Amino acid sequence: MSYEVAKRGKSIVFCSWLSTIFLVSCSTVTTTEYEATARTTYTWQVEYFVNQSNDNLTRFEPFASTSLVNRNGIKPENAVTGPDDKGLWWAALPPRPTVDEIEQRQKPSQKPSSPQLIRSVDYRLSYTVGNKVQILPTNYQVYRQVVKAYPQKSPLQLTLGVNDNTVEKAQLSSE
Length: 175
Known about the structure:
This protein is mainly beta.
């Protein structure tokens, strides 16, 4: 079976063969000790390109960035803006790269784009079961569920992802 996808005037063919089926189960844990964090980050980025129609000849160069850790939805001390429409707080903007800084990283025959301000968020959940503390990546939905449950320290049932390396879901526990 193959699929063809058009991308900027190019065709890319993906081939898919079903050779093995893996059955994966998800673990669940219940805890009353947890903390959700969301690291909000602003980063200035410049795209350098030789030919705008060829994606393979572009590179992205990060410049200054600032970050702020949100814990359980509570306003961080150094927050400058927020909460945004997702309930997140943000640090001050990093300094925009100057033309000299942009040209300094420019390679021969490349042209830089205008600097772009990129916003990103990294969600984590730490929880304790017995004497063991786990800190795992998660998503916005889990972060929001923990933020709502945190003030009452309500027990949460956590659904872990493949190999217990992520938290995929959090819901109030009936225990």
